[in-house]
């Protein structure tokens, strides 16, 4: 038996070797090893909390995705997909220069798949202090409401907490939500995503920012509009010796918005400005929104009215008249008058300079009233036809003798 097994042993060994070679040749012909390329494969991060424990955040500088090539038999290669690979970077193994080796494996096929290019790659990151800041949410409107309507209210429901790298948080100037109001004609609520803007109004990449809310509820109040008159008047009196000579204001009309009931209830906006005790002109701006009743809002960017109340110190003017300039009122037909005063008689007027300039001897029209007087000598007060803010500051007098005319 032993002789049979050892007989021609060399030929038998050669046969085995030839059979193995033939198998390899046939296998490589029918199922050859081929390369497969994979591009932009995302890298999964392990132990990310290692950075969070340090109150830090990170930004990937290099290695967020990688390219690599593997080799496998065609029967396997034809079925390979990105999902068959486990591509990871373990932050527990970060180096002092914030780099970590990227590991590539193929759990499904194990050693039947070999990485032949791109095996030694690293992920590099920047680390930074993690900070948090609170921001009021501002509503930015896009478009214009329908004709005759106004956006009277835009309210965001919350204040957001935003956390992220210190350098990026410090760049945030505003947190905004954008709402499309083009051609709207009624109030509504909407839910929008917040955006971070820098000083120049550019949107900041939020990839490593965390918002306390991913969406914000906004209420948009849309109201009808109405144009009404603005009426501004003065109340009180200036200080002694001063007078109000003019009041100017603008605009004379304003546009308001509100619900139907509020608009029906208003025809004009009346504002009173006190001049009590004033010794100089009053020039100021009045906040019109503060003067509107509840339920109404002011349309437009200009929320104020300009007012100019002119206050002047009273001036004095002297006008000399003669008895012949005096009008006699209440004179009976049978009464004669003989003036004792010869003149000139000084009349002193007080008032604004512009008003005083209107008066002289020709238009002052001084007069006395002798209604009911009988024969005798009298000294009477002279009056004058002055109006507005002009008054007599003295009491000019004239003396005369009244006598009845004898009947023939």
TrEMBL record:
The chain crosses the membrane at residues 9-26. It comes from the Bacteria. It comes from Variimorphobacter saccharofermentans. InterPro entries: c-di-AMP_regulator (IPR053154), YbbR (IPR012505). This is YbbR-like protein. Keywords: Membrane, Transmembrane, Transmembrane helix. The keyword Transmembrane applies.
């Amino acid at each position: 038996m032993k002789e049979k097994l050892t007989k021609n042993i060399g030929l038998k060994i050669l046969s085995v070797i030839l059979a193995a070679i033939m198998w390899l040749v046939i296998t490589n012909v029918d199922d050859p090893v081929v390369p497969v390329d994979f591009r932009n494969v995302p890298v999964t991060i392990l132990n990310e909390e290692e950075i969070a424990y340090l109150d830090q955040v990170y930004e990937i500088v290099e290695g967020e995705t990688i390219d690599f090539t593997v080799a496998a038999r065609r029967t396997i290669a034809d079925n390979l997909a990105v999902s068959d690979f486990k591509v990871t970077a373990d932050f527990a193994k970060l180096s002092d220069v914030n780099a970590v080796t990227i590991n590539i494996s193929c759990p499904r096929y194990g050693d039947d798949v070999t990485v032949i290019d791109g095996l030694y790659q690293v992920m590099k990151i920047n680390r930074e202090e993690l900070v948090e800041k609170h921001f009021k949410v501002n509503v930015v409107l896009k478009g214009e409401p329908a004709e005759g309507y106004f956006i009277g209210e835009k309210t965001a429901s919350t204040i957001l907490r935003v956390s992220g790298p210190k350098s990026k948080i410090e760049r945030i100037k505003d947190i905004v939500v954008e709402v499309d109001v083009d051609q709207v004609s009624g109030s509504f609520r909407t839910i929008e995503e917040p955006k971070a803007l820098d000083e120049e109004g550019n949107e900041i990449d939020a990839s490593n920012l965390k918002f306390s809310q991913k969406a914000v509820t906004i209420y948009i109040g849309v109201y009808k509009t109405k144009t009404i008159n603005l009426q501004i008047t003065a109340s009180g009196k200036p200080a002694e010796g001063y007078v109000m000579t003019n009041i100017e204001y603008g605009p004379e009309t304003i546009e308001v918005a509100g619900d139907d009931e509020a608009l029906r209830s208003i025809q004009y906006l009346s504002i009173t400005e006190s001049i009590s005790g004033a010794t100089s002109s009053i020039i100021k701006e009045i906040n019109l929104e503060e003067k509107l009743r509840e339920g109404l809002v002011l349309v437009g960017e200009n929320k104020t009215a300009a007012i100019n109340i002119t206050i002047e110190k009273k001036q004095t003017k002297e006008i000399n008249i003669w008895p012949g300039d005096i009008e006699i009122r209440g004179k009976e037909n049978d009464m004669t008058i003989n003036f004792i005063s010869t003149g000139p008689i000084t009349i002193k007027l007080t008032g604004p300079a512009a008003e005083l300039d209107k008066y002289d001897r020709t238009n002052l029209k001084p007069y006395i009233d002798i209604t009911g007087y009988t024969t005798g000598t009298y000294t009477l007060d002279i009056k004058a036809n002055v109006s507005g803010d002009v008054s007599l500051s003295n009491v000019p007098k004239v003396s005369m003798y009244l006598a009845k005319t004898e009947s023939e």
